[in-house]
Amino acid sequence: MSELPEIESVVYFLKPHLINRTIKKLSLEKENILVNKFKEELFDGLIDKTIVDFTRRGKMLLFLLNDDSRLYIHPRMVGQLITCPKSFPMIKHTHFTMELDNEEEFRYIDVRRLGKLYYLKKDEEDKVTGIHQLGYEYDDEKLDEKTFKYMLLKYKKSIKEALLDQSLVAGIGNIYADEILFTAKILPNKKTQNLNDDEIQSLLKAIREVLKHYIEVNESVGYETYLKGEGKEFENMHVLRLYDSKICPICNAELKRIRISSRGTVYCPNCQK
């Protein structure tokens, strides 16, 4: 489950292990996950470079190197990312590793090989990652009620579809869209142009509260717990209110399940209007 809270938590756990570390050796076992370069170009670009920043944009992770080149990793649905001692047992389906100058390794694991790597040299125009098409970050101060209302009223689809549209607010996935709408008490199939001002205000507030809360839940454990879970067992999976539940945690009504644009959707018909 690689949605914004998980990707943000990956940055939180891995960043202290990556910043100011120099890449000494690389391994790319599955070359088809590398989108825009040949393997040799990637290796020539990364080896002996130092990682000066590790951050997130939407659901994508970004390594900034000391020569201003960039490595992007989009883990998609099941990609796992860890840093660990070189002696740590190799996990099956590890497709990409970077050996660092401190006897640790960065490893990318992907059972389904859905994730992608992109490497861009200094000043190379980004025509491949799609980052320029992403909308606001959830905590961007420029995303105020007026701006949010403008985006929603011109969208003309269901509010669930709007939340999943990465060109509006980046990083929200299916599970958290349901949690956000439950918090805001809005039906997922309600049309965006039918939202009133109070609902729009509640929705924006819910986006920020829900994502912030689950980021904090994920980051409440130590790195050793994260590593033990191989970068896939996040703490919030145990406290999600709707995911894998049958009864509403507020009113005890039976939760309903429908499909909106082919995406499974769960809601409470009593609490959400």
Care to describe what's here?
The chain is of the alpha+beta class. The protein folds into two domains: about 5-135, MutM-like, N-terminal (N-terminal domain of MutM-like DNA repair proteins, Alpha-Beta Barrel), CATH 3.20.190.10; about 145-265, Helicase, Ruva Protein, domain 3 (Orthogonal Bundle), CATH 1.10.8. It is built from seven helices and ten strands. It has helices at about 5-20, 40-45, 145-155, 160-165, 175-185, 195-220, 225-230; strands at about 25-30, 50-55, 60-65, 70-75, 80-85, 95-100, 105-110, 115-120, 255-260, 265. The strands form three sheets. It has a four-stranded antiparallel beta sheet, with helices on one face. A four-stranded antiparallel beta sheet has the order 2-3-4-8, with helices on one face. Strand 3 and strand 4 (about 70-75) form a beta hairpin. The longest helix has 22 residues, at about 195-220. The mean pLDDT is about 95.
